[in-house]
From TrEMBL:
<dbReference type="GO" id="GO:0030170">
    <property type="term" value="F:pyridoxal phosphate binding"/>
</dbReference>
<keyword id="KW-0663">Pyridoxal phosphate</keyword>
<comment type="pathway">
    <text>Amino-acid biosynthesis.</text>
</comment>
<dbReference type="InterPro" id="IPR000634">
    <property type="entry name" value="Ser/Thr_deHydtase_PyrdxlP-BS"/>
</dbReference>
<dbReference type="InterPro" id="IPR036052">
    <property type="entry name" value="TrpB-like_PALP_sf"/>
</dbReference>
<dbReference type="GO" id="GO:0009088">
    <property type="term" value="P:threonine biosynthetic process"/>
</dbReference>
<dbReference type="InterPro" id="IPR029144">
    <property type="entry name" value="Thr_synth_N"/>
</dbReference>
<dbReference type="InterPro" id="IPR004450">
    <property type="entry name" value="Thr_synthase-like"/>
</dbReference>
<keyword id="KW-0456">Lyase</keyword>
<dbReference type="Pfam" id="PF14821">
    <property type="entry name" value="Thr_synth_N"/>
</dbReference>
<protein>
    <recommendedName>
        <fullName>Threonine synthase</fullName>
        <ecNumber>4.2.3.1</ecNumber>
    </recommendedName>
</protein>
<dbReference type="GO" id="GO:0004795">
    <property type="term" value="F:threonine synthase activity"/>
</dbReference>
<comment type="similarity">
    <text>Belongs to the threonine synthase family.</text>
</comment>
<feature type="modified residue" description="N6-(pyridoxal phosphate)lysine">
    <location>
        <position position="112"/>
    </location>
</feature>
<dbReference type="Pfam" id="PF24857">
    <property type="entry name" value="THR4_C"/>
</dbReference>
<feature type="domain" description="Threonine synthase N-terminal">
    <location>
        <begin position="2"/>
        <end position="80"/>
    </location>
</feature>
<keyword id="KW-0028">Amino-acid biosynthesis</keyword>
Amino acid sequence: MKYISTRGEAAPLGFCDALLAGLARDGGLYLPKEWPTFSKKEIRALRGKSYQEIAFTVLQPFTNGEIPAAKFREMIDGAYATFRHPAIAPLVQTGPNAFVMELFHGSTLAFKDVAMQLLARLMDHVLAERGERATIVGATSGDTGGAAIDAFAGRDRTDIFILFPHGKVSPVQQRQMTTANASNVHAIAVNGNFDDCQNLVKAMFNDTAFRDRVKLSGVNSINWARIMAQIVYYFTTAIALGGPDRKISFTVPTGNFGDIFAGYVAKRMGLPIDKLIIATNENDILARTLKTGRYEMREVKATTSPSMDIQISSNFERLLFEAFGREASEVRAAMASLKQSGSFAIEEGALKKIRKEFRAGRASEKQVAATIRDTFKKSGYLLDPHTAIGVSVAAKHEKPSAPMVVLGTAHPAKFPDAVKSASGIDPTLPTWLADLMTRAERFDILDAELKNVETFIGERTRVQK
Ligand SMILES: Cc1ncc(COP(=O)(O)O)c(C=O)c1O
Ligand SMILES: N[C@@H](CCOP(=O)(O)O)C(=O)O
């Protein structure tokens, strides 16, 4: 299986090359040339299997035979041994036909751990096989950074540089990035917002001389392996709820569109998913796009769900590629228009295809607080603000015929201020993070200027120049 770029101008790559490349050289995102599929019978055969067994079966076709099966299984087992719940992604019933899939039992309490722990092991393996090192850069609005630092800290073949928006992540998120005691970790607070950080990362990938000199690799969801690992929990959950003989709907708190795109891929692979519902906060660019057919950037607002305070939703490009019938020239035109004018229009045919698979909704700050408060009052279950957006939006789309699963993307203790002000409850960090807020911090502050950031990274990476 080869991986092709959404912009159609980069050479197709095998799995290991796409893994290390992150962003394609034409600025596009990699996708498999065709989707591997599973029949209903094959999906039924996964019933009763562990998360790790299902992960192995569902993901192996994507590895293109480039990772030995036993080694891949060992990586999966290692990745999920770091989780504190045996089911990895357990389900909690919150209503007669409503569930939250808890994705926050990994070491940094966010769904990012699910993919990042596997990604780090895959990269380590490929770099060791090739006798190479890599410089990893990542942009974060709060959660990707902590998960990446946890997964890569102390790894000898990689130096990791995480860019986060200065003063715009929660104190817990910041500490998860700034207190790692490892010399290969560099947390950088950027004077700007998340979109500035993400633009810097993409600009570094597009600077070929720099990219090649420091052997740049990415851990954001621009990296196909991130999306790939996130496909698994759609399968485990659907199977637990009666799939493939029953359709399930998923509501996904969305920012960069990676998590929900993984659900789309699961559907393409044969998993009977009814609807995929995009849930946004007041930065509702995706909900507006589905309604109007125009992707139109606005000023980003700071909300109580900072990880979703995003205007440039990276993986929407992957969906456009699909909706345009994999016509890369149309993706290039849309992305050029976005760069030039901050917007693009989606033609009727493509929009129809998107609307067939997806619904979308937004939750205001008031609705988020009310959802946290009411859910706690009703059931004693404490939601984090991101998951609360999912629960709020899902309520408008629930129907008796298909169970509705909201992706629980973070633990409430990552956002204690918002949770306490909504519910009166002060969520506590688990014991292994109990001293997090007293650990010594180490980070640098940089302006959002490409040359500046490249010089900083170039001087600190251990890649041979
Ligand atoms: C807690 C949380 N929820 C939701 C999201 C949105 O996920 P995605 O960017 O994959 O759409 C993020 C960030 O990615 C997050 O950290
Ligand atoms: N919400 C994310 C933003 C980056 O998303 P990614 O999935 O592309 O890594 C975060 O928490 O950092």
